[in-house]
Amino acid sequence: MNYYARLIKDRVTEIWNDGGLNITPADVHVAELAAKFVPCPDWVIAGATFDGKEWINPEPILPTEPTEEPEE
Description:
Layout lengths: L2 E6 L2 E7 L7 H4 L2 H4 L2 E3 L9 E2 L4 E2 L16
Antiparallel strand pairs: 1-2, 1-3, 4-5
């Protein structure tokens, strides 16, 4: 399966895969939109950055400790 990242100002806003059909974003999107997609590894997630050489995923958002309900 092929993966593509849509970049806006070097930040991944969308991950698109071809579903194993061996197609590219240009096959299904208008040219202006397809031009914003670049091939990426399958582990890249939305919010990652790309400097032209290296993909860096954002830090995971960890759940916070639940707060206790105030006593009535």
